Amino acid sequence: MTDQQTARIAMVTLDCAEVAPSAEFWSALLGWEVAASSEDYAMLTSPDGGPALGLGRVDDHQPPSWPDTGHKQFHLDLAVNDLDAMAARAVELGATLADPQPGETWRVLIDPAGHPFCLTDAANWG
């Protein structure tokens, strides 16, 4: 074993045009607390102490495209117990169902700021 330093993911931050609607959406969808919030930035914390989710206001924010048009991006994959129920809940909170969909075991949605994210069956993630 070496003495190389390693890092851990402390937070993933998503850019957005408006912080408040994004913070409200992600807080409600994940069930996480909004630990800090201003016009320019919000941080949501996980009840299990895992990495936080940051939301930062960026002037002239341009959401990524779905499907990917060649401009590489990352997105969140969320494990859920009931795929259809959680997709319906996400839409109720302000997400939209993306088109096209990749198959039966995943749902791709777009958050209110335009970020794609995926829901998948939690049983597949052990």
From TrEMBL:
Gene3D superfamilies found in the cross-reference section: 2,3-Dihydroxybiphenyl 1,2-Dioxygenase, domain 1
InterPro entries: Glyas_Bleomycin-R_OHBP_Dase, Glyoxalase_6, VOC_core
VOC domain boundaries: 8-122
Organism: Nocardioides zhouii
Superkingdom field: Bacteria
PANTHER family: CONSERVED PROTEIN, HYPOTHETICAL FUSION PROTEIN
Official protein name in the record: VOC family protein
